[in-house]
Design goal:
Number of strands: 11
Distance between the termini: 16 Å
Radius of gyration: 19 Å
Largest sheet: 11 strands, antiparallel
Helix content: 10-25%
Low-confidence stretches: 1-16, 19-32
Structural class: alpha+beta
Mean pLDDT: 82
Length: 216
């Protein structure tokens, strides 16, 4: 029900795309040899940077957006898995894949938050969640959606990691003959830092609660 745990990649790719601090062909990118990103020229890097920023600013969750280099040799796609708030800043979890014939594909998993008018890679409470944390949150979410009344909180806590969360369901609604409701999700790490978001779920024909970004 909730997103798979993604590893945040703090690489030179991120520095180039979001900070513009180095050339696409600088020595620090040697580990990307034969990858798509290592072959992009300055104009293609600029185009890709613009594409990523526009996607982060405008694309709804779950929508796949596409990029192609000016020569058509390289292409990419990006999807924002979900959005949330962290310490008052808007954040988005996204995946980016770059492909080109004869090159190793590049796959990046990023946690990005708005800061000073741009987007930067951030470490948030969601970044540090372990698989058992996600399992506990998933189970709590299912219980909250199935059994909780409007505004009744459902919590989880992992003694091993110190991470915890609270999920609060909204009112049940019938939309297009489906039973739907919003679910407010808050996650707190062992340092007391919190991330939160509100997501919309509808009950499928099989009885499973499935996220519907169109309702958010």
């Amino acid at each position: 029900m909730f997103a798979t745990v993604w590893k945040v990649v703090l690489s030179s790719f991120v520095l180039v795309i979001f900070c513009g601090a180095m050339s696409a062909h600088s020595a620090s990118l040697s580990f990307l040899k034969n990858s798509v990103f290592s072959e992009l020229n300055q104009e293609e890097v600029k185009s890709l940077k613009s594409f990523i920023r526009e996607t982060l600013a405008d694309a709804p969750d779950k929508k796949v957006t596409y990029w192609k280099s000016s020569g058509g040799e390289f292409n990419g796609k990006m999807i924002v898995k979900f959005s949330y708030m962290n310490s008052g800043a808007a954040c988005r979890r996204a995946t980016i894949r770059l492909d080109g014939e004869g090159f190793n594909p590049d796959q990046y998993y990023l946690e990005l938050c708005e800061k000073d008018g741009g987007w930067v890679v951030m470490e948030t409470p969601l970044t540090g969640l372990k698989s058992e944390d996600w399992d506990l949150m998933n189970e709590a979410g299912i219980q909250a959606l199935k059994f909780s009344g409007e505004g009744q909180p459902f919590s989880w806590f992992n003694k091993k990691t110190g991470n915890s969360g609270v999920l609060v369901p909204g009112v049940l609604k019938v939309i297009d003959e489906k039973i739907c409701r919003a679910l407010s999700v808050s996650v707190t790490n062992k340092r007391g830092e919190m991330s939160n978001g509100v997501y919309f779920f509808c009950k499928s024909a099989s009885g499973e609660w499935v996220r519907d970004p169109g309702g958010e």
